[in-house]
């Protein structure tokens, strides 16, 4: 019987993985936007100059990130001969699909319906879907955290303590892809698991193991930095991956809690309600389900509290809470005994799921119409989404009638809403963001100006490591730019120099420089208005 259940779980895990990879890699934008540009430039330089111990920008080592993810993109880009959006995002897509598999397997240790419901809520979480379709190092931390928790939890539930030996490997994996934070978060969550179980000996062993591995991985990282860039790079790595991210924060300690209600909707609001409704049972859980809920709540609290202390804050830094959030949210819909507040929340959310495809379909249709207020999305994907959503609306009553009498059917009823959300994001929200942040038209016009021989691109009061990255990641020719902060330095550049500046800075140039400026074209780098100009040397 156990082997039959195991085989069924394995088949379901494989299906979830395949579905995840497709969802996270279909309908990608035609160019890199936002933070993707930085990692695309890393991989482009590695493709041009060969692998290195740290990623580079303009030939200089970049200290903020380990090279591991860039090396994966480099390997996947070799068959294409260039870095493509697919080759760059595929490693994250695979990682996110694996996260969903681990989420399912954690929930399936209690019931398959719980695991499937949790996967649906992960897909229904905006930040998770958004990061899964981008280049996201924090998803590697999510995977390491989920694997550590699964190894510890399944070792307890199934009586397989040998699985605990895998946890140090997951620590190393997290550090290898994300640096110190990639080890600290999984270690803290795993430590919290054993602390909640009152297994103090394992807490001590785990803590010492994590500390030793952290020191070892850090030594390897700094040795690699010293080998590539000497003591200066070592100092920059310590500053970038340590001091700048862990500095004491004196601002809003509730930043992540507030942001999570929107960025991590719909999972976080529902998980928050579950935590409130069940907090009295958390100290002394009675059933296996309540025991797991206590672990999940503790998981979320550890990450939120721990990440609220450092000064550097980004919503993507707390992605490792998504597995716990999705499992907590799913509990409301797979536990037939949930009553009171949980029962009311379940009815309200199912009502929301009934109307969501309708609202999404209307929104997709409206956003296809040209208007003066925002850039309309292309008609083809917009109308295709509209048709898909209409199909979901039509078939929804059949889903409700077919599965409505079963206590564990609510997770199946959520499916149309989840599919509508995915379709809305892939073919409506993502294209709108792309149209606002696209840099390729600007880069192509600049490309056409560059001669076959030597040329210089100089950024005036832009970068380094700012909007210049967006442009250089989309320029086809390998060019090392110059960065200028003072207007008088513009006159000191070689004749074959093309200057890039924001419109506002160009308009503020002194008259003697403006008189010599020859404006080539105006355009946008991301969402900022910029200009390319050269200087006449004959005046």
Molecular structure report:
By secondary structure, this protein is of the alpha/beta class. The protein contains 22 helices and 7 strands. The chain has helices at residues 2-25, 36-49, 68-77, 85-108, 112-123, 126-132, 138-158, 167-178, 180-196, 200-246, 255-263, 267-278, 288-308, 322-334, 341-367, 379-403, 410-413, 415-437, 440-449, 467-472, 503-507, 511-514; strands spanning 56-57, 60-61, 456-460, 482-484, 497-502, 517-525, 528-535. It has a 5-stranded mixed β-sheet. It has a two-stranded antiparallel ribbon with strand order 1-2. Strand 3 (456-460), helix 20 (467-472) and strand 4 form a beta-alpha-beta unit. The longest helix has 47 residues, at 200-246. The radius of gyration is 26 Å and the shape is globular. The model is unreliable at 403-408 (pLDDT under 50).
Layout: helices, strands, pairs:
Layout: H1 2-25, H2 36-49, E1 56-57, E2 60-61, H3 68-77, H4 85-108, H5 112-123, H6 126-132, H7 138-158, H8 167-178, H9 180-196, H10 200-246, H11 255-263, H12 267-278, H13 288-308, H14 322-334, H15 341-367, H16 379-403, H17 410-413, H18 415-437, H19 440-449, E3 456-460, H20 467-472, E4 482-484, E5 497-502, H21 503-507, H22 511-514, E6 517-525, E7 528-535
Parallel strand pairs: 3-4, 3-5
Antiparallel strand pairs: 1-2, 5-7, 6-7
Helix pairs in contact: 1-4, 2-3, 3-4, 4-5, 4-7, 4-14, 5-14, 7-8, 7-9, 8-9, 8-10, 9-10, 9-13, 12-14, 13-14, 15-16, 15-18, 16-18
């Amino acid at each position: 019987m156990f082997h039959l259940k195991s085989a069924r779980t394995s088949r379901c895990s494989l299906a979830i993985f395949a579905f995840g990879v497709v969802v996270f890699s279909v309908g990608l934008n035609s160019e890199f936007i936002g933070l993707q540009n930085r990692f695309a430039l890393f991989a482009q330089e590695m493709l041009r100059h060969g692998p290195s111990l740290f990623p580079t920008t303009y030939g200089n080592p970049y200290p903020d990130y380990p090279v591991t993810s860039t090396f994966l993109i480099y390997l996947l880009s070799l068959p294409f001969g260039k870095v493509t959006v697919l080759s760059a995002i595929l490693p994250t897509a695979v990682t996110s699909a694996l996260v969903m598999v681990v989420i399912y397997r954690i929930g399936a240790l209690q019931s398959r319906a719980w695991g499937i419901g949790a996967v649906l809520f992960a897909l229904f979480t905006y930040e998770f879907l958004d990061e899964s379709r981008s280049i996201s190092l924090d998803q590697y931390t999510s995977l390491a955290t989920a694997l550590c928790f699964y190894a510890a939890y399944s070792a307890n539930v199934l009586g397989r303590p040998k699985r605990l030996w895998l946890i140090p490997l997951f620590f190393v994996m997290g550090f290898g892809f994300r640096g110190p934070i990639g080890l600290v978060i999984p270690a803290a969550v795993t430590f919290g698991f054993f602390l909640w179980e009152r297994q103090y000996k394992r807490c001590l062993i785990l803590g010492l193991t994590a500390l030793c591995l952290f020191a070892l991985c850090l030594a390897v990282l700094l040795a690699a930095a010293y080998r590539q860039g000497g003591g200066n790079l070592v100092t920059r790595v310590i500053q970038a991956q340590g001091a700048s991210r862990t500095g004491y924060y004196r601002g809003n300690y509730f930043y992540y809690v507030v942001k999570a209600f929107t960025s991590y909707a719909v999972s976080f609001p529902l998980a928050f309600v579950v935590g409130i409704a069940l907090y009295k049972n958390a100290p002394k859980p009675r059933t296996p389900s309540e025991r797991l809920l206590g672990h999940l709540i503790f998981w979320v609290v550890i990450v939120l509290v721990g990440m609220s202390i450092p000064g550097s804050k980004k919503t993507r830094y707390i992605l490792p809470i998504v597995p716990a959030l999705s499992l907590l949210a799913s509990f409301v819909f797979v536990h037939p005994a949930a009553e009171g507040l949980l029962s009311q929340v379940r009815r309200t959310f199912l009502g929301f799921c009934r109307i969501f495809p309708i609202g999404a379909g209307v929104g997709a249709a409206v956003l296809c119409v040209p208007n003066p207020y925002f850039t309309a999305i292309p008609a083809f994907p917009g109308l295709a989404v509209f048709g898909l959503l209409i199909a979901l609306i039509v078939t929804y009553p059949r889903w409700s009638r077919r599965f409505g009498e079963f206590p564990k059917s609510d997770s199946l009823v959520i499916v149309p809403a989840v599919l509508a959300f995915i379709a809305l994001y892939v073919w409506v929200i993502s294209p709108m963001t792309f149209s606002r942040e696209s840099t390729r038209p600007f880069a192509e016009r600049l490309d056409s100006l560059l001669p076959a021989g030597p040329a210089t691109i100089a950024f005036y009061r832009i970068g380094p490591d700012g909007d210049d990255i967006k442009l250089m990641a989309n320029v086809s020719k390998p060019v090392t730019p110059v960065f200028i902060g003072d207007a008088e330095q513009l006159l000191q550049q070689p004749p074959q120099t093309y200057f890039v500046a924001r419109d506002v800075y160009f308009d503020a140039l002194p008259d003697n420089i403006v008189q010599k400026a020859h404006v080539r074209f105006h355009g946008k780098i991301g969402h900022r208005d910029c200009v390319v100009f050269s200087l006449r040397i004959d005046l």
